[in-house]
Amino acid sequence: MRDEDLATCVSCGLCLNDCPTYRVLGNEADSPRGRIQLIRELVRTNDAPGASVVAHLEACLVCRACETACPSGVPFGRIMEGAREVLRERVPGSRRARLLRRLGLGTVARPTRLRLATSLASFYTRTGLQRVVRATRFLPARLRGMERLLSAPEGAPFDPHELAARPAADIALLAGCVIRIAFGETERSTVRLLESDDRTVTSPRAQRCCGALHAHSGDGDGARALARENIAAFEGSSAPIVVNAAGCCAHLKAYGAVLAGDPQWSDRATAFAARVRDASEVVAATSVRAAVRPIRVVYQDACHLAHGQQIRRQPRALLQALQGVTLVPIADAERCCGSAGIYNLTHPEVATELERQKVAAILAARPDIVVSANPGCMLQLRAGLRDAGSSVPVVHLMRFLDDPAACLR
């Protein structure tokens, strides 16, 4: 927590209409300026905050739409991550909550454990067991919320070790966690697009989870430890570090802030962050394929791409380079879909309402396909469209650019 960050907010209220939780809940304490005031009060003492303060701060999506709206440049994402860390220190939660948090974050950060979980999910979705469970509706409400997000993995997991130790490489790929295991075809598409411009991609063996979910959950020590491991893994080169998951990329670009208080790592973290690029910033328009027929495409702005990185033009330019593609706009295009890491599991009521609004906007545009740049958004939108009775596919930007026809099969 930094006093200078908190001081940047002048409580002007221009962020209110852009805050998804304020729009849904209508409570000043669930707005950015309201939460900042609660955080100011939180850091004035060392006391444990009351239950209402915890609830208002935990209800934030950390979508960072307020940062786009803010004329004062309030770094709200950084402020909220610091506040969550303070909450974890002062209000650790029940033993069950701590166990579940540790299990969830540990699974994301360990590829072997994540691969096992994904294999079980694949068995569940491909054998027909999923249809039986959904038809009987015997799962408790919270488990139903988790189950509805499951979809079959995209082919075999991606193995970054295949790209390790390539001396001629001029691009380094951060393979991520969920995306490498559950979205293998998206990873392979990303590599093909990058290398079609006569470049060579490598992916270090020692890379780890980026730590974004740890930071959002208040596990600051875990996030910083993962950051140090990734910085060490990618050092020894000045090549751009390319990422195809919006949430991961936004966090990697913030490593300088994550380790600003560590004198042994701060300069290295800043140098690392300066090399990070979203895939849409690097892939050349000449690398994309032509569409086989006219396609109406809705591009879903992932919050951590549009607000966290201020990247909006590049993905659209790549889609418009595809002959036959028509980009169709939707209402409130930059409004959060409700995924926000694990927010759709911890706050299903708000997440479901945001999902409903987003799905309604998408269906009103009558697209053939929905394209996004973040795995969480894709899972959320797939579930929402399915529940609305729609069969419109949802795919990653890189996979669609690589082979539009395959995405429509």
Explain how this protein is built.
By secondary structure, this protein is of the alpha/beta class. Among the domains are: 3-90, Orthogonal Bundle (Fumarate Reductase Iron-sulfur Protein, Chain B, domain 2), CATH 1.10.1060.10; 286-407, 3-Layer(aba) Sandwich (Rossmann fold), CATH 3.40.50.10700. It is 53% helix and 6% strand. The protein has 25 helices and 8 strands. The chain has helices spanning 3-7, 20-25, 32-44, 51-58, 65-69, 76-90, 95-109, 111-126, 129-136, 141-147, 178-182, 184-195, 212-216, 220-234, 246-252, 255-258, 266-275, 279-282, 303-306, 313-320, 343-346, 348-364, 375-387, 397-402, 404-407; strands at 171-173, 201-202, 241-243, 276-278, 295-299, 325-327, 369-372, 394-396. A 4-stranded parallel sheet has the order 2-1-3-4. A 4-stranded parallel sheet has the order 6-5-7-8, sandwiched between helices. β7 (369-372), α23 (375-387) and β8 (394-396) form a beta-alpha-beta unit. α3 packs across α6 and α7 crosses α8 (111-126). The longest helix is centred in the last third of the chain and has 17 residues, at 348-364.
